[in-house]
Design goal:
This protein has about 260 residues and is of the alpha+beta class. The protein has two domains: about 60 residues; about 180 residues, Immunoglobulins (Immunoglobulin-like). It is built from eight helices and ten strands. Strands 3, 5, 6, 8, 9 and 10 form a six-stranded mixed beta sheet that branches. A four-stranded antiparallel beta sheet has the order 2-1-4-7, with no helix packed on it. A hairpin with a 5-residue loop joins strand 8 and strand 9. It is elongated and about 75 Å long. The mean pLDDT is about 90.
Length: about 260
């Protein structure tokens, strides 16, 4: 595939205008009737982009990163079993070796959450690569409030990263600056990367890992549905430049 797409891209890049494809039997007839220059240019650009993705994935030596890059080419069903295995920590030998416990929630209950950031890789195969250029101009912090129901008028408590939460609760995540002010400016939007891990999320096909829009300006609501250690990260995006001006770092939520 790498060779075929490479050769096709070479041809397309050498021909900026749509070539005429004639019927070899009836030369007065062409096979271009369903295409025009605009469609051809779009096809040409897409093949060039796919070639870059394929070459990048082919040259990647690190296994998890390679899987993630090939999933960009083939879609989320590619290496799904491998992805689920890597994202499932409970009963894994690495978890037992790192913490002495067979379940990540139990490990947090006993040891605290300080090990999560070093133990859980931010580059799991189902975690999408950032689509924006990073220009770290802003400080971004995630504030989280636990609610019994999404539309309750009052929250139960403020959460810290790594704190344990019961299932079937709602969490209001807010992206704030160093002064505690919500990022709600019309010049920027906040995107949220929601990443689930472990058995229950994998079995429900809900590992996620993409980038979601805010529920309200600077705010994202999420429910706690699957046992395990999950994380949220906020990205402040300039609407004018399409670049990321600040990211929060990972905020962990451990669902019991």
């Amino acid at each position: 595939m790498k060779t075929l797409i490479g050769r096709l891209d070479d041809y397309l890049q050498a021909n900026s205008y749509m070539p005429v494809v004639r019927n070899p039997v009836l030369t007065s007839e062409t096979f271009n009737r369903h295409w025009d220059q605009e469609k051809y240019e779009n096809f040409r650009e897409c093949i060039h982009r796919y070639r870059e993705w394929i070459d990048d994935a082919y040259e990647e030596n690190e296994r998890s990163e390679s899987i993630r890059k090939w999933r960009r080419v083939f879609g989320d069903e590619f290496a799904k079993g491998e992805v689920d295995t890597v994202a499932t920590f409970s009963e894994s030998s690495s978890l037992i070796k790192a913490t002495g416990y067979r379940d990540i929630v139990n490990a947090v209950l006993v040891r605290g959450a300080s090990f999560l950031d070093s133990f859980i890789s931010p580059k799991l195969p189902h975690v999408e690569k950032l689509p924006w250029t990073i220009r770290q101009r802003f400080s971004v912090f995630v504030a989280a409030i636990e609610y019994l129901e999404r539309f309750d008028s009052q929250g139960v408590r403020t959460l810290q990263s790594g704190q344990i939460v019961e299932k079937d609760r709602w969490i209001r995540f807010e992206a704030r600056n160093a002064n505690g002010i919500l990022y709600a400016s019309p010049d920027f939007e906040v995107r949220w990367q929601i990443v689930n891990t472990d058995n229950e999320a994998a079995q429900a096909n809900q590992l996620r890992g993409g980038f979601d829009k805010s529920s309200d300006p600077g705010v994202r609501w999420e429910s706690t549905s699957y046992r395990g250690a999950h994380w949220v990260e906020a990205f402040v995006i300039s609407r004018r430049e399409g670049r990321c001006w600040g990211r929060s770092g990972r905020f962990f939520v451990v669902v019991k």
